[in-house]
Design a protein that fits this description.
The protein is mainly alpha-helical. The protein contains 52 helices and six strands. Among the domains are: about 260 residues, no CATH class; about 160 residues, Tetratricopeptide repeat domain (Serine Threonine Protein Phosphatase 5, Tetratricopeptide repeat), CATH 1.25.40. The radius of gyration is 36 Å and the shape is elongated.
């Protein structure tokens, strides 16, 4: 009996039964990738492919090239498919006329259920193109089997209609057309092949009469819904139907339906614009073979380098496949080394006499660096960037220790962190390698490619000025070096041009691009850059010429390039007033690659139409203003940064990047209300834009508007694009944490990290939460991961040192920080942390010495210096110095609200109430929901005798922070004082009862609320409830036995309940603790009576 199998995908669809050969063909053509579940018909249970050794062997032999399609499919079968392919291609290359957009003629293809078994049977059709061109890359599937990685499932590209197609009007014709071709073998045993032989000649004749402008018409008919390839292809049928004589329509409709099915199956990534196809990369972790095969590994490695040298998107994908194959055969190499005089020397002489000293050392195959470089370079084209980023990160983790010694390892890591937006981390890695390579006796020559990326990364990280420590401008020096090179990689020219653009030297930048064109005239990337300049110069003829060149190059089949091409195509036809068509191009581009700048262009186009050309001119000005603002922000010149940001935002009400940047500046300056207003207005214009919504929710969470944040997140959860974003879960988790639901919050943050485990800020956030609950080891684990992702973050380093101080003591923590200083140079933040550890551990001389060094290092504009001085002033209890340094920090960092609240509380302690009011009012203006701001406002009013005002502000604190004790505490204190002033006994009793409830609410939030316990104890004492008062004051005393007031009050309570000895003890404690007690005489009199 013939062995047959069924395949089940993660979406629940089942296909089969299939023969072993059919499964092999499906793998070759990319319909399966080996991660699915398999079941042998009438035998056993469902399992992975490893459960069926015969299938596993088949797939491995296909990967190794031992079995090719010729072994699985006959020559006749290939000829049938080739004929269909040629005819369909000729038919669908013809121009098509205008169509009627009012009718929906097509419902999405679905799998048809097998009547007997309930599974889905495939009508199998071979991919003719793949059989003719062996170099065509498979798209949307894993190009190899990955048995251990079950996260990737290829979508089967063989859909069939579940419902009756409304285009098929005649059942009789349908039955005729389903007959197999005469005298031809079917492709598979169970394949149904449609005969098109008699239809195609007359069909082609009819199509010659169709009108031109196919691309324009097909774009105009597309609805603004999710792009469906099958929908677009079947729309072509409707276009042609309009040109067919009335009596022949039924026949043509049926024929075309089958042609299109073949066409969709054979060209799953074909676009309606010409012959441009996009290829999405498959990024996968190499699965190493059991046995080492060094010759094959070397062969694949050399082929990979040769392919990469072609410098095109497709060649990089092919090169990646070769490097992956190389790693499968040999992940690690072995080198012989001999030990001589305690030094490792590579063994060159296999016949050495010192065989006893020869050791074998394993080294990573260099293919891993190449693979990581390519994967990082093409990451923007990934269909699942989060998942693929995680895979690249795993590769880099293996090569992590080599980033300071191996250029390609450093380059791979630098490009990767650049692509995921971690510019500072990328700069740190590249700069560390450059430092190691150019210091010491054996200096290494840095490649032009690494230096080009160094320049680009320094720009992205905002590190383009003179370093105050080294007094060097690394970006400028790198640029000048590259400028002198006679020839270099394409990146060298493009990144140098971008550096000149950054400095507003556009003509010089264009000259560099012209120089690059001498060596890379067919580079799509370069032509796109020229097109960008042509648009800047408003040279539409040049733009159109470049677009034609790009079409001839097929955009290198790159999604990112194709998306940019569509954007430029749309802009180019605006001069012809074809606004609807331009909008279609923009929408098509956005479906390929979301882009906030293009989204803004589309909004302007739909809003203003004929005035759009003015906006294009204005956009250049907006970008220039944003660059100026970002430069000012990098230099901590926030007022100037704000000025330029406002100008950029005012230039256009719909330009997303400028408004988000302005909101960011507002948040940095502490103006939360204004920032939220900007983002809410933007969200009304772009209700489904991920970037806008994520920024808005982040502002809500930061401003403690938790109800608004959760409400917005609830709405966004219905949008799959947003709800699948890891940032969604990160914000949801933080909102719940601020809402007091810590465990739920942690769970959601972890869920976000499961989707995308490269968010260092989330690891840091979790580390702080775990430390808050005393889980030092869990906190260490999270902050270690954060440091791996961002090793140059001094805040993370200082936090890790805090954990070391808690777990291992001052010496270990200080040693860790000293080691960091040795590797990166003296820094005020790190030295400040060391000084604080010296102070906390009682090493006062070392503290003073370190403090003096910090003062000499810090500049007058360095916030870190003043934060350290503020900390030391707080430790010394020097409130005057606390005020001085806090005021200086407020000038340098106006958005540091914590510092302002701290300053207000210091003014409160100093009884400088007007100054305290001025500071806290500024905070409330910026952010009325800031934690403790309304509390300190209430305290200031309370101390000035405005108890009603204190009650109101306390109520605001409780409203915004219902899980905090402080709002209830101040309300209780204010109500108690108001009761003291009330003469009406019934009202007074009600007020005291309300005051009691406020204090009890505070204690329910924090059972050790010191002030609430003390106030409630005092209230009960005055009411004559001495036993209850004693219980509250004993809790106060247990919290702080050195509190004078608690000891005195316990003395009075014990006196009242007749326990004189205890009363004497507590009264004496009071006098010992407070030598200058103003009531010493009366207490001593009490003691003499009690004794």
């Amino acid at each position: 009996m013939k062995n047959e199998y069924k395949i089940k995908f993660d979406n629940g669809q089942i296909v089969g039964p299939l023969t072993k050969k059919q499964i092999g063909v499906l793998y070759i053509y990319g319909h399966i990738c080996g991660n699915e579940h398999y079941h042998k018909v009438n035998e056993g249970d469902w399992g992975n492919i490893t459960s069926y050794p015969e299938l596993l062997t088949l797939i491995e032999e296909i990967i190794d090239g031992k079995i090719i399609e010729e072994n699985l499919i006959s020559k006749k079968e290939k000829e049938i498919l080739k004929k269909i392919l040629d005819d369909v291609t000729q038919v669908l290359e013809k121009s098509l006329p205008e169509i009627d957009k009012t009718k929906k003629l097509f419902q999405e293809f679905k799998f048809k259920k097998d009547e007997e078994g309930g599974s889905t049977r495939i009508k199998q059709v071979n991919n003719g193109q793949a059989s003719l061109d062996k170099t065509v890359l498979r798209r949307d599937i894993n190009p190899k089997i990955t048995i251990t990685d079950k996260t990737k499932v290829a979508q089967l590209q063989v859909p069939f209609a579940d419902e009756k197609d409304p285009l098929i009007l005649d059942e009789h014709l349908k039955e005729k057309e389903e007959l197999p071709l005469k005298n031809q073998a079917s492709v598979y045993d169970k394949t149904e092949v449609v005969s098109l032989k008699s239809i195609l000649p007359s069909l082609k004749k009819e199509l010659k009469e169709a009108e031109s402008e196919f691309e324009k018409k097909i774009l105009l008919l597309e609805e603004d819904v999710e792009d469906q390839e099958s929908l677009k292809e079947l729309t072509k049928i409707q276009t042609i139907i309009k040109k067919i004589p009335k009596g022949k329509k039924t026949k043509w409709i049926t024929a075309f339906a089958f042609i299109v099915v073949f066409y969709v199956l054979l060209f799953p990534e074909e676009n309606s614009s010409g012959n441009i196809k996009v290829i999405y990369p498959v990024i996968s972790f190499p699965v190493v073979h059991t046995y080492l095969d060094k010759p094959k590994a070397i062969e694949a490695y050399e082929l990979g380098k040769k392919e990469y040298a072609k410098n095109t998107y497709v060649s990089k994908i092919k090169a990646a496949k070769y490097f992956e194959t190389s790693l499968k055969h040999m992940f690690r190499d072995q080198k012989k080394i001999t030990l001589k005089k305690n030094q490792e020397v590579i063994e060159n002489n296999p016949n050495t006499d010192q065989k006893d000293n020869v050791i074998i050392k394993e080294v990573l195959s260099p293919a891993i660096y190449w693979l990581a470089i390519i994967y990082s370079e093409i990451l923007n084209n990934s269909k699942n960037k989060s998942e693929d980023s995680n895979i690249i990160f795993r590769l880099l983790q293996i090569a992590n220790t080599k980033t300071i010694t191996e250029e390609k390892a450093a380059l791979a890591a630098g490009i990767f962190y650049l692509k995921i937006g971690k510019f500072k981390t990328a700069a740190y890695i590249i700069e560390k390698y450059v430092l190691m390579a150019t210091s010491g006796v054996k200096k290494k020559q840095l490649s032009n490619k690494l230096l080009a990326y160094r320049l680009h990364i320094l720009m992205k990280a905002g590190m383009v000025g003179i370093d105050p420590v080294t007094d060097r401008n690394d970006a400028e020096e790198t640029f000048q070096y590259l400028l002198k090179q006679s020839r270099g990689p394409l990146e060298m020219y493009i990144f140098c041009a971008e550096y000149l653009e950054f400095n507003q030297r556009f003509e010089d930048a264009e000259k560099i691009l012209f120089k690059a064109s001498q060596f890379y005239k067919n580079s799509v990337w370069l032509i796109l850059k020229f097109t960008e300049y042509a648009l800047r110069n408003k040279d539409i003829n040049k733009v159109k010429h470049n677009l034609q060149a790009l079409e001839l190059l097929k955009l290198e089949n790159c999604p990112e390039y194709y998306a940019k091409y569509l954007e430029y195509k749309g802009i180019s036809i605006i001069s012809e007033k074809q606004f609807d068509l331009a909008a279609k191009y923009f929408n098509k581009s956005l479906k390929l690659l979301e882009n906030d700048e293009l989204r803004s262009k589309l909004a302007e186009l739909e809003l203003k139409g004929g005035e759009f050309e003015k906006f294009l001119i204005l956009e250049s000005k907006i970008k220039d203003l944003m660059k100026s603002s970002q430069k000012m922000a990098t230099a901590n010149q926030w007022e100037n940064a704000f000025k330029y940001a406002v100008e950029a935002a005012d230039a256009s009400s719909t330009y997303i990047p400028s408004h988000i940047w302005l909101a960011h500046i507002q948040l940095k300056k502490g103006y939360f209300t204004q920032a939220i207003e900007i983002l809410e207005k933007l969200a009304r214009i772009y209700p489904t834009n991920t970037t806008v919504n994520i920024n808005l929710v982040a502002a809500y969470v930061e401003a403690n508007l938790i109800d608004k944040a959760l409400q917005k997140l609830s709405i966004l959860s219905r949008e799959s694009r947003v709800s699948n974003d890891p940032a969604f879960y990160s914000l949801l988790g933080r909102a719940y944490v601020k809402h007091g639901k810590i465990s739920i919050g942690i769970r959601y943050i972890k869920k976000g990290l499961n989707i995308h485990n490269l968010n260092d800020d989330d690891y840091y956030y979790l580390a702080k939460l775990f430390l808050q609950f005393g889980q030092v080891s869990e906190s260490k684990r999270r902050i270690s991961t954060a440091l791996t992702l961002q090793p140059d973050n001094l805040e993370y380093i200082c936090f890790y040192s805090e954990l070391l101080y808690e777990s291992d003591g001052a010496d270990v923590a200080i040693g860790f920080l000293r080691n960091e200083i040795r590797s990166r140079g003296e820094d005020v933040k790190l030295l400040s942390q060391i000084a604080i550890f010296y102070y906390r551990s009682g090493q006062n001389k070392l503290f003073e010495k370190t403090k003096n060094k910090i003062t000499s290092l810090g500049t007058s504009e360095d916030p870190s210096l003043y934060k350290f001085l503020l900390k030391t002033a707080e430790l010394d209890g020097n409130l005057k110095s606390v005020v001085e340094y806090a005021k200086k920090i407020s000038i340098l960092e106006p958005g540091d609200i914590d510092n302002k609240v701290n300053l207000a509380s210091t003014y409160l302690e100093l009884k400088r109430f007007p100054e305290g009011h001025a500071i806290i009012d500024d905070v409330l203006e910026r952010m009325p929901t800031y934690k403790m701001a309304n509390y300190y406002k209430a305290r200031l009013l309370f101390n000035q005798g405005d108890f009603q005002g204190a009650l109101t502000s306390g109520a605001s604190e409780s409203l915004y922070f219902p899980n905090s004790e402080f709002g209830f505490l101040i309300q209780g204190m204010a109500m108690q004082e108001m009761a003291n002033q009330e003469n009406d006994m019934s009202i007074k009793a009600k007020m005291l009862n309300d005051s009691t409830k406020f204090f009890e609410n505070a204690i329910s939030r924090n059972r050790d609320s010191f002030d609430a316990l003390k106030n409630l104890g005092q209230l009960k004492y005055r009411q004559g409830q001495y036993d209850i008062a004693r219980e509250y004051y004993l809790r106060v005393w247990n919290i702080d036995k050195a509190d004078p007031e608690a000891n005195k009050q316990l003395g009075y309570i014990y006196k009242q309940i007749g326990q004189g000895d205890l009363a004497v003890e507590y009264f004496q404690n009071y006098l010992d603790l407070r030598k200058d007690a103003p009531d010493r005489a009366s207490i001593e009199e009490e003691l003499s009576v009690l004794r």
